[in-house]
Amino acid sequence: METLRQDIKHAWRMFRENKLFTATALVALTLGIGVNIAIFSVVNAVLLKPVPFAEPDRLVTLMISANRNPVMAAASPAQFVYWRTLTDVFEDVAAVTSTSLNYTAGDTPERFSAARVSEAYFRALRAPIAHGRTFTPEEDRPGGAAVAVVSHEFWVRRLGSDPSIVGRPITLDDAPYTVVGVAGPELDLREHGRPQVWLPLRTDPATTDRLYLYQVVARLAPGVTLTQAQERLEASVAAFRDRFPGVLGPRAGFSALPMQAASVGRSARTTLYLLCGAVTCVLLIACANVANLLLVRAGARRREVAIRSALGASRGRVMRQLLVESGLLAVAGGALGLVAGYVAMRALLAINTAGLPRLGEAGALAGLDWRVIAFTGVLAFATTLLFGLAPALAGSRVDLVEVIKSAGSRVSGGGWQSRLRSTLVVAEIALAVVLLIGAALFVRASLELSHVDPGFDSRGLLTVQTSLSGPRFTTTAGVEEVIRSGRERVRAIPGVADVVASSSVPMQPGWGMPFNVVGRVDAGLYTGSNTVVFSSPGYFEILGMPVLRGRSFDDGDRAGTLPVAIINETLAKRHWPDGADPLADRMVIGGGAANMREYADEPARQIVGIVADVRTTDLASRPEPVMYVPHAQLPDALSALVVSSLPTTWLVRTEGDPAALARTVQDELRIATGLPVSAARTMEQVVSLSVSRQRLHTLLMSVFGAAALLLATIGIYGVVAYSAQQRTQELGIRSALGAEPRRLRSIVLRQGVALIAGGVGAGLVGAYYLANLLAAFLFGVEPHDGAVFAAVPASLSAVALAAVWSVAQRASCVDPLRTLRQEA
Questions:
Q1: pLDDT at 567 over 80
Q2: Cβ(60)–Cβ(226) under 8 Å?
Q3: What are the residues whose beta carbons fall under 8 Å from the beta carbon of 63, sequence distance 6 or more?
Q4: Second label for 775, Cα 20 to 30 Å away, from 69, 493, 501, 786?
Q5: CB within 8 Å of 822: residues ≥ 6 apart
Q6: What whole-number distance in Å separates Cα of residue 122 and Cα of residue 221?
Q7: 347 conformational bin, left if phi > 0, alpha if psi -120 to 50, beta if neither
Q8: Helix (H) or strand (E) holding 461
Q9: Are the C-beta atoms of 326 and 387 separated by less than 8 Å?
């Protein structure tokens, strides 16, 4: 310990005496470690933290699979009821569906997220209950009592932390619900949207409904493994098909996925893996930079090490001293990187969470915990080995006689050290090329996205939402009365040109339903599936969507008139090929009464128009098949299902800045509906949010690429400058013998050009394979885009050459007399 203390003291003194070296090394390490910690904090929150329930490894999400690969987490009531019978592998099976509720008590009405859950839900999750109880099986049956469980946050914020609230009613959606329980403060349901209130699901045990409405979570029975549960699910598919023929396709089946993995999804996982690879490249470049600095220091300290060896210090003792110095650098860089990474992560997520799951709003659930601290420690240790071992080996291997003979000479270190420094620089440049080409591809893709026509005019459009759920909205007439009143009040606002109400708008979640074309014979249960939008008249006009054939909706499309529908161009091309006329056919939403019998007697609808496509999910996705239906023609049961499951969105066309009218529009709608109004956004903001993940890719890859370019440029500058310094005597002699400055510059430039060429060549090979992995993220850009693969190496070479040229220019101005005097 005393020896270690002396080593640390000596290292500290060396760092203070060489402030420029220390600062440069710490900046490189802080940058490399900081970006890794920033990304790891997000990876930790999304991928590594288990779901916050007891025995999280026993919780699974039941899914629909295709070719044994889980593809859809949504499930139908019929599937949920069937899965509940598999008691040999599942201890509890519970279903949940998200919704929103209105709470109008008090001075500030509020719309908040809620969920309907089966009675086993809290039991399956082992959810803590602070007061009262959860639901009973009787309350979860059709016609059961109107009861509710509230979250701890809602209990504190809206119910005044009153423990006597259990057993008393509160008003939700204009209906009384008796509070039977208050969840514990530690209950964290980020996987299910962080609901504030839970209501009973009330699924009919004899249901045959096949609409995908639920998310189903199960707890494995004691002693049952995930593999065993998966095998049991696969074996049960045949029995399900016998009970519900035609529901599952020939390659479809059932699957169980760990709850944490199911909540993340493949897209988010791939995004994070991509970012991890990018920051690893930045760290490797930083380590190469610091290793080069230490190699230079080792060369300069050869005389010191030789003397210590002559005085009896063993090679192992010298290596330990040098490794202690590297370790102190790594620890300091790790501490600074931890702070910088945390600050960078918070700033990044405050700007853009890219819709990554499990983060919460503004990334509030990502932060420092033992995993991040441990990762920092491992990273500091790994970087010590990465940049410290080679310099320690080089610095501890000296020949005392050779050092004494070369006293006064600037030549230091062996040829292998020079080759190692050059190799490190080549590796830095290669990694920088890889990152810069990746960043350039993302920038190209973002530019392509910015020129995509969404199919509608987003300028001057404002969107706001209300939740039309409750006793007033169980009939279509009740919903239409509120929509009529809201449209009248908003239209009266100066600066408002028009307003419509819809179940969804482009770039936001909508309804997906199967359908049948009347009179068509199909092998399956239904003709196809599409997104269905239920709206008031004027929907296409307010969005600027052209009607290609037929007509739009008008006020004459109301209850009691001919049921109609309008389809988009993609749906028409997909199901009416070879010149067939869609306007001569009728469609049935739900594929027939079998799918909808619990909700409505949905009539066949005459197709009266075809409209142009819009981008339904985001700008990077192809248009999907969409059917548009007048809300006024919906049967009561289907109308109640639609408005209670998704908030009603109001589209307001303004003559000026839509954001300036947001508060006035919300106030008028609040008066018209008597309900809270939320989520006021311009349509341009909605479009921007739909591509937030692509923007995050571009931003981060650009930052990482810029950091790599900076570090690589510093690295090549340092190596070439050090090499030129060691050749000062040679250059001075050449100058004295008549060599022109141009000749001296070329000597230095040749070395730099060789390093740049080697790094760029290796980087292009790596970038070629990287581009194949990035193909899924690139919209409208070829992975091996010729312009990118030409421009990036050229740009990086130009920057690196500028650094080398500055060294060569200085070396060409050497004074031969002064140099020879110094070397004499």
A1: yes
A2: yes
A3: 70, 71, 72, 73, 75, 254, 255, 256, 257, 262
A4: 69
A5: none
A6: 16
A7: alpha
A8: strand 461-466
A9: yes
With CA atoms as reference, report the closest residue to 35 among 704, 597, 564. Answer: 704
Amino acid, single-letter form, for residue 578: D
Q: Rounded distance, CA 627 to CA 607, Å? A: 9
CA atoms within 13 A on the CB side of 574: 16
The angle subtended at Cα 417 by Cα 4 and Cα 796, nearest 5°, is: 110
The CA-based angle 581-583-585, given to 5 degrees, is: 85
Summarised one tens digit per residue, pLDDT across range 106-151 is 667 788 889 999 999 999 999 999 999 999 999 999 989 999 999 9
Number of other CB atoms surrounding residue 62 within 10 Å: 26
Beta-strand (E) ranges in 154-228? 169-172, 175-183, 197-200, 214-220
Structural contact between residues 357 and 192, judged by C-beta atoms closer than 8 angstroms: no
**47 in Cβ contact with 276 (< 8 Å):** no
Could you tell me the CA-to-CA distances from 492 to 497, 498, 554, 661 in Å, in that order?
9, 9, 20, 12
Nearest by Cα to 111 from 482, 502, 464, 509: 464
- The CB-side HSE value for 39 (13 A sphere, CA atoms) comes to 25
pLDDT, one tens digit per residue, over 20-52 is 778 888 888 888 888 888 888 888 888 888 877
How many angstroms separate the Cα of 614 from the Cα of each of 125, 335, 456, 540, 571?
40, 50, 7, 11, 12
Question: How far separated are the first and last CA of the chain, in Å rounded?
Answer: 45
Looking at the DSSP bridge assignments, the partners of residue 653 are: 461, 498
Q: Which residues of 618-634 are buried (b: 16+ CB within 10 A; e: fewer)?
A: bbbeebbbbbbbbbbbb
Pairwise CA distance, residues 30 & 259, whole Å = 36
Joined together, the tokens standing for residue 656 give: 């000026």
Give the H or E element holding residue 534.
strand 528-535
- CB-neighbour burial class of residue 670 (10 A; exposed 0-12, middle 13-18, buried 19+): middle
- The residue with tokens 């349509």 is 683
Bridge-based pairing of strands 564-568 and 605-611 is parallel
Residue written as tokens 């060691």? 726
Q: With contact defined as beta carbons under 8 Å apart, do 441 and 629 qualify?
A: no
- Reference 519, options 509, 529, 511, 527; nearest CA is 527
Mapping DSSP to helix (H, G, I), strand (E, B) and coil, where does residue 155 land? helix
Structure tokens at 360: 């919460």
Report pLDDT digits (tens) over 450-473. Answer: 888 899 999 999 999 998 877 888
Helix (H, G, I), strand (E, B) or coil at 368: coil
Distance of CA 394 to the CA centre of its chain: 44
- Please tell me whether the overall predicted TM-score, pTM, comes out greater than 0.70 for this model: yes
Which candidate, 212, 207, 220, places its Cα nearest to that of 61? 220
pLDDT exceeds cutoff 80 at 801:
yes
For 265-287, b where at least 16 C-beta lie within 10 A, e where not — what string? eeebbebbebbebbbbbbbbbbb
DSSP structural state of residue 121: H
Contact 170, 148 (CB under 8 A): yes
Per DSSP, which regions of 202-326 are E strands? Answer: 214-220, 252-258
Tokens representing 462 are 């404002």
Cβ neighbours, 10 Å, residue 772: 10
Within 8 A by CB and 6+ apart from 49, the residues are 260, 358, 369, 371
Torsion angle of the four alpha carbons 45, 775, 505, 109, in this order, in degrees rounded to the nearest 10: 10
